[in-house]
Write a structure and sequence with these properties.
Two copies of one chain form a homodimer. By secondary structure, chain A is an alpha/beta fold. The first copy, chain A, contains 19 helices and 14 strands. In chain A, helix 10 links the parallel strand 3 and strand 4. In chain A, helix 4 packs parallel to helix 18, helix 8 packs parallel to helix 15 and helix 18 packs across helix 19. The first copy, chain A, is globular, with a radius of gyration of 25 Å. Chains A, B: Belongs to the class-I pyridoxal-phosphate-dependent aminotransferase family. Alanine aminotransferase subfamily.
Amino acid sequence: MFDRRKYRAKDKPGSATAQQPRGRLLQLQRLKRAVAQTSPVTGEVMPAGGEFRKHEDEDRSFHGSRLRMNPNVVKAQYAVRGEIVNRAKIVSQEVAQGKHPFDTVVWCNIGNPQKVGQQPITFIRQLLSLCEYPQLLDNPAVTQLFPSDVCERARALIADVPGGTGSYSESPGVPALRRMVAEAVQRRDGGCKCDPEDIYLLDGASAGVHLMMRLLLRPAENDAMLVPIPQYPLYSATLALYGGSLVPYYLDEDQAWGLNIDELKKALAEARRKGQCVRAIAVINPGNPTGQCLSYENQVDIIKLCAEEDLVLIADEVYQENVYASSKKFTSFKKVATETGLAYKFPIVSLHSTSKGFIGECGRRGGFMEMIGFPDAARDQIFKLASINLCPNISGQIATSLMMNPPQEGEPSYELYMKEKTGILESLKRRATTLVSSLNKLEGVTCNEAEGALYAFPRIRLPARAVEAAAEQGKSPDGFYCMEMLMNTGIVVVPGSGFGQKDGTYHFRTTFLPSESEIGSVIERLSKFHADFLKKYS
Amino acid sequence: MFDRRKYRAKDKPGSATAQQPRGRLLQLQRLKRAVAQTSPVTGEVMPAGGEFRKHEDEDRSFHGSRLRMNPNVVKAQYAVRGEIVNRAKIVSQEVAQGKHPFDTVVWCNIGNPQKVGQQPITFIRQLLSLCEYPQLLDNPAVTQLFPSDVCERARALIADVPGGTGSYSESPGVPALRRMVAEAVQRRDGGCKCDPEDIYLLDGASAGVHLMMRLLLRPAENDAMLVPIPQYPLYSATLALYGGSLVPYYLDEDQAWGLNIDELKKALAEARRKGQCVRAIAVINPGNPTGQCLSYENQVDIIKLCAEEDLVLIADEVYQENVYASSKKFTSFKKVATETGLAYKFPIVSLHSTSKGFIGECGRRGGFMEMIGFPDAARDQIFKLASINLCPNISGQIATSLMMNPPQEGEPSYELYMKEKTGILESLKRRATTLVSSLNKLEGVTCNEAEGALYAFPRIRLPARAVEAAAEQGKSPDGFYCMEMLMNTGIVVVPGSGFGQKDGTYHFRTTFLPSESEIGSVIERLSKFHADFLKKYS
């Protein structure tokens, strides 16, 4: 239990921790309150009970201790940075004081590679560095610092981005960068035409999801969206925020998280029977948290369904560079639609991001969407929405264009680039394999292969007593399991309930991002915890 | 009139402009359609009439040429990048072909300093450059490239930002950077305590406005917000997007755009009489487009009103570094609230940004908000909203912390920093004075002093025949005037109707950002146009 008196004592002048900023205390208080509040079972928020914050040395009160808030906001949940993560933050501050049976917290809750040791791609960082401070190019020492192709590309970028990284660009993005992205998309898709006008650069793919949700979901019209279960909870969260309903279509765990088109059609029909107006379908390929790569046939089925049923296809393809299964490959929905003869026949928005793949530039907030088949009236509204936000950050736009236009063979940066790329991808593949096979060794745990993305999503079978204990604490069984995992091992994962899962099944999502030197110890700790947990609750 | 045949002829293979990307044609088509669509008079959108885009070489049609869209999106307007700007883009492409009686388009529609020649602050760019590519610090040549304090600060930043610019940070921002910002805010406000926990870093101040709108405006509750007229149209646009109503309070042009607290109370009372639930008041200080700096008394009045009337105060203070009138100075609402004894007694959110001031880092998308007096339940929801968007871009976070913590006297970078800062601010002041006095010389034009910000907002008195001509074209009189200005001079300004103004008055907003060498010619062209316009329509 959180004991406030312990902290007050430490804050006394002269005590060893008197330096602890008061803000830290308030942060801990607020986090504790936040932990108490959200129910991972129902997604409902249990209000803080009218408490309000006080400074230690000020009498602060105000007549309204409540603030009337948008219920859509209160309803929205985002487990990737939810209850378990909030507790983990407190734990990570306490660990140094020896309060826990482990030395470090291991953050396996979020795909944030550079936070856990993955190195950025040199080529990209050299270019961004030069774009921030172009004067470097005029310095004679520059040839010692950067290869010639980097200097050349930097000069081209500086010419292409008028006003540089500090200037607002056109709202859909710098025209030259949109062109570069479009040309790259065309190459990627084996020549399927890509119009730069269909490319909007974004502050991360999430910004594209928000835009589409905002555009499509009409207040008071019972609008809904088909979303895969399990899903990346940005979809459920934004649906809640924008007042839409989530219509789940279940991926089949027994078929390597494959998609069954009949399941999709059934979900659609059921929603319509309930009076919902289904506007779009989100497809995450490769999947998150599941990692599966859709088969070509699945993609054709989805495209045909959307064309027939007047659905917008939201193709979340941010993991397109993370495919590990040798029998699988990524094909964009744009390409499949083109080959099916249905491209431009109905709206498709394809999303990509700088955050994943092997460049892992999460904090950059970069990405793009390609939009085809939208009527002009919609394109005008999308343009206007982009205008209201002025423009995506330029550094992210540049990173996006570089991601899509890496060094070519023969160029000075090529060798290092390929070494870094291959190193990262092969390491990801090794860690994926290691982690998944280790999880499959645990009692009652089955884990599908991580064909792609950055996560393992094992299914856990929990003893009845554990399920009861969870219920007593008002937690979901997998939320309970994950919290116990955190408190016993320091490993932070996200319970399956945060992503959605078939009723009566439990999962958790873990990244396989801990370094290769660390991952062995992570697996060891996890395995021991699991065995102990089963023993305790059997 | 737009003649499509001209473009097709040019696209014939072998023709001189056959290289013109097809996308350009579609862009022009779409822009023209966009121009026809939005009415600056009513703010309503005239639909495109069900047209849809076709590629030149593909037969594209689909069964739905309409896409049902959120009416709040359709309703929202943002004139800073609206109709006139869309036309100006077309014009800027045509100018090279000699189609217009001027050589260049001059973009005076948006506060985007680095696009029009303002140089970034060296100190900031050197640091960002090093943060992007820290390996530079290990290179022996680094001391030739960067002053020692920059190298030292870079090392500190690299230590403070775990995972660097490519890693997601905590959702409210990197803790060390929040601390740095809080300490700076405390210094700025003469010691008024600032808790780092109350500082959230943002992807630009706009992100903070969106967050507050989303939090406060409840669907179907007739929620409203007091907004100054004239205002920066982000407020009207976001109110429309989030389903709230705008309650105008008029600034007094005859009193140097001053605020009359009785006017404010009247507007509040009137809104309530109409059954609106007024949730907040937005105050822009220094003002945009008006540039006025509020008096201390005005600020006290506003604070007292909010505390009494249960209003959230949204203090948009992004121009706090742009104060030119020697008799005026910026005082933060936080400071005034503290001195009035009302700090923490009701919710205040104060916004700042890297986009303005003298650093002008618009494309960076950086900024922060300080939130005080919000109940914990609201703080938890705000935290959750920030989590759903993961984090603000790290480069912007770093720039924000540097903006608030510049070089100090005695440090190697100090002299250059002060030279650049003073140079920019004094030049802005000179241009402000020059422009305003020149506008005041024009017949029928009066322009209040630009006490702050980056804009002049002159009032124009138009002949009756001009007003008629405007009506015939379905334009507002000042929209008509501004379009004529564009087509005759290439100067792009924003009509007052985009910001709101007293009925029967007309204005336009122009930046004073064109360089000092250019601004003379801009004034000349504008003056000539104005005289010709009056002559034509008298």
